[in-house]
Amino acid sequence: MDEDLIEYAPNIPDNVLELIFSYLKLQDLRNCALVCKSWYRFLCDENNEVWRAQCLQKVPTEAFKNDLLSVVPTYKAKLRAFFHAWNPFDCSRHVYIKPNGFTLHRNPVAQSTDGSRGKIGFKHGRHAWEVRWEGPLGTVAVVGIATKDAAIQCHGYYALLGADDQSWGWNLVDNLLLHNGDAHGIYPLLNNAPKYKVGERIRVILDCDDNTLSFEKNYEFLGVAFTDLPDKMYYPTVAAVYGNTEISMVYLGPPLDG
């Protein structure tokens, strides 16, 4: 960057910054945030016109046609969620990602369990994302995390997520926690725990610092589901068996519980 520009950077008016930044790529904007406090302050406003333009340019128009992104209120947060959404190149061959970029559709294929992973994995920090099942659950509907080594499709109707030592999941149908092919108890730990109803919001909370996985349902914390997770790279993952079911996932960022 030109030294004269750096010298006068703190004095550039916001409307001029907005014009300059509108021509830059995301990586350039990250670098600009390191130039001075003034530019950092400007780019910390996640709803300014720079982030709005980036968001509208990259996030599919279909994603704004319902309340899917209402859980991430700023333009930068919506942009971040899009980069964390389902990976169209890391899902079962019986699954496709809808044009909105956030919703997967499982085709009606008999005797198959099919999953999908998010685009970005996590190894450090605390992360939360929301999962919404839109359609019948069938006999298996598992939400959780997996490494890249976990299978993403198998023959038969099977609790695929949690079937090996590379995945951890909560089966919403029978409320069982699953890992390494075993059931690890009923979840949440309540007498006659209510079953998941289609459309309810599931929030997955991965704490890579404490090595735990937890869940919320309709904004109610259900407790820690798994502890002592090994130090691996984890991806948001689901597994489904019911034909034409759809599952949306929106990355939220660090959980807001402090």
TrEMBL record:
F-box domain segment(s): 6-54
Similarity comment text for this entry: Belongs to the FBXO45/Fsn family.
Protein name: F-box/SPRY domain-containing protein 1
B30.2/SPRY domain mapped to chain residues: 64-256
Pathway this chain belongs to: Protein modification; protein ubiquitination
Quaternary state and interactors: Component of an E3 ubiquitin ligase complex composed of hiw and Fsn.
Keywords, alphabetical: Neurogenesis, Synapse, Ubl conjugation pathway
Positions in coiled-coil regions: none
Entries under PANTHER family matching the protein: F-BOX_SPRY DOMAIN-CONTAINING PROTEIN 1 (PTHR12245:SF7), SPRY DOMAIN CONTAINING SOCS BOX PROTEIN (PTHR12245)
A GO CC term attached to the entry: SCF ubiquitin ligase complex
Cited Pfam families: F-box-like, SPRY
SUPFAM superfamilies: Concanavalin A-like lectins/glucanases (SSF49899), F-box domain (SSF81383)
Gene3D superfamilies in UniProt: 1.20.1280.50, 2.60.120.920
A biological process from GO: synapse assembly involved in innervation
Highest taxon above the source species: Eukaryota
Location relative to the cell: Synapse
SMART domains tied to this protein: FBOX, SPRY
Function: Required in the presynaptic motoneuron to down-regulate the levels of wnd and restrain synaptic terminal growth at the neuromuscular junction (NMJ).
Stored InterPro entries: B30.2/SPRY, B30.2/SPRY_sf, ConA-like_dom_sf, F-box-like_dom_sf, F-box_dom, FBXO45-Fsn/SPSB_families, SPRY_dom, SPRY_FBXO45
